[in-house]
Amino acid sequence: MLRDRLALHLAAGAIAAVILAPLAWPGYVLSYDMSFVPSQSLRLDLIAPLDAAPRAVPLDAAVSLINLAMPGWLLQRLILVAIVWAAVVGAGRLVPTESLGVRLIAAIGYGWTPFLAERLLLGQWGLLIAYAALPWLVRAALDLRAEKPGAWPKLVLLLGLSALTPSGGIIAAAVCLALAPLRKVPLIGGAVLLVNSPWLVAALVGNSTAHSDPAGVAAFAARSENWGGAIVSLLGTGGIWNEETTPASRASPLVPILTAVVVLLSLFGYQKMRHRMPSRFPAVAVTGLAIAALSTFGPGITALTWLVDNVPGAGVLRDAQKFVLPYALLLVLCAALGAERLASRLPKEPAAVVLTGTVLLMMCAVPDLAFGGAGALRPVRYPPDWQAVSELVGREPGVALSLPLSEYRRYRWNRNRTVFDPALRYLPVPVLADDTLVVDDVLVAGENVRLREIRARLASGEPIATADVRWVLIQHRGVVDQAVPPGALTGLESVFIGPDLALYRNPAAVASTVEPARHAPIVAAEIAALLAMIAAAGTIAGTARR
């Protein structure tokens, strides 16, 4: 009904405004993996990386392409608003009910989960695109089962959006293949491989090691947020490994009680769900929850550690909490149906209280998601040094090394909030930045073999001039608690010294040769996936006009 759709869009606009209110300020939100820049270069090493693990393939390619048409500050705002908006409307339309009130419970509940809050603060907007696409993806898969016209192109487009990151692609593939009728599994499997081919090909042809450091299993394990323990945190869709990106409200002693009520309400509503939706989607959701739970106890950690250590590509299982994503949707849908079932047994006024109370109950699980996580996502401006250095290195292309060696940095101008090194995306030249992580004093080795060699050179006291890099970028003064090793700058020419950045040129560097042929398989896979999505979008648009 038109009334229901309008109400869902109004709810989506309200939720997006409440969560993303700080984005009304100018600048960029820089938080952990979210490091948008004014204009991200369309560089081969960025869109088709060979040395780095393909965690942002083809996400970086998509951003670089769109940046040709709009600045980074605008793109960031459009993406974040679209994520919240699509999540809210999608869940509201997916829940199997005729009640607008129940639709609004599902819509608002899915737009206000601890999962969304924690991943947003961690800056994993690529994974949140898959989160927002999931209700629509499930709906398209169900329409395909029912052989409704137009379902196939919608499925392909949503699969492609989800596969902008490897984790999102894997989750979307599992959901689609679980919901697909057996006779269509080969066709859907082919679409899954096509849209996921960019990061799959990058992993196959790249130089980075396919084996991740098994120390990351324990470091990235789901953790307890309160007295309820890690499992209760996961049941409430929280439990992310990073304490800094966990809203303070998750430590409240009331959270386990609220979680228990929502889970019980969802179990009460599952009876309605199982009559209206194939049981294979709940099976995928529970399986994802079980994978996340494995990292919370000894035998599970041992099993995951063995997999990561012995199976190429199994490093995707390290941050297992992300696989709670399908469960988050199932929990919200079932809780909404549980509220509907409970309200149907009550008079009109108490029934309205139950429906309203369910919405408030879900929002109380993470009230400080409002205003960008209680102000954590307030935009900042890049200091002028960044643009000055970008222009200088652009005049003489060559590989740049970002020092001190650290993948994530804290800047005073970013209110000391941790962010992925912006140099990788801000500078118009290839940038080497360390991919070794430190999580609670645990050192998790990266996969970039070239960075391991540079780290070894610095550790042995060799100057950077002996490495094959043209530029050395020193991030100083604005960086908190970091320093460059003594003697590292011996033999380098000072080009720019500013309050935040210093740039040095290596006169001994050999002109690097670009080998497009090595990047070609990845670029070809990205083009194929993009064409498939464009074709799907064109088909959807053509159907809508008829």
Beta-strand residue percentage: 5-15%
Number of helices: 22
Proportion of helical residues? 55-70%
Q: Characterize the overall form.
A: globular
Description:
The structure is a single chain. The protein has 546 residues and is an alpha+beta fold. The chain has 2 domains: 2-41 and 53-375, no CATH class; 384-505, no CATH class. The chain has 22 helices and 11 strands. It has helices at 2-19, 44-47, 59-67, 72-94, 100-110, 114-121, 125-145, 151-162, 166-179, 185-205, 215-219, 229-235, 255-276, 280-294, 298-310, 325-343, 348-364, 370-375, 384-395, 423-426, 449-459, 516-545; strands at 30-31, 34-35, 400-403, 408-410, 418-420, 431-432, 437-439, 442-444, 471-475, 493-497, 501-505. A 5-stranded mixed beta sheet has the order 6-3-9-11-10. It has a two-stranded antiparallel sheet with strand order 1-2. A two-stranded antiparallel ribbon has the order 4-5. A hairpin with a 7-residue loop joins strand 4 and strand 5. Helix 8 (151-162) runs antiparallel to helix 9 and helix 10 (185-205) runs antiparallel to helix 22. The protein starts with a helix and ends with a helix.
Summary tags:
globular; 22 helices; single chain; two-stranded antiparallel ribbon; 546 residues; alpha+beta
Concise account of the structure shown:
Helix content is 55%, strand content 7%.
Write the layout of secondary structure elements.
Layout: H1 2-19, E1 30-31, E2 34-35, H2 44-47, H3 59-67, H4 72-94, H5 100-110, H6 114-121, H7 125-145, H8 151-162, H9 166-179, H10 185-205, H11 215-219, H12 229-235, H13 255-276, H14 280-294, H15 298-310, H16 325-343, H17 348-364, H18 370-375, H19 384-395, E3 400-403, E4 408-410, E5 418-420, H20 423-426, E6 431-432, E7 437-439, E8 442-444, H21 449-459, E9 471-475, E10 493-497, E11 501-505, H22 516-545
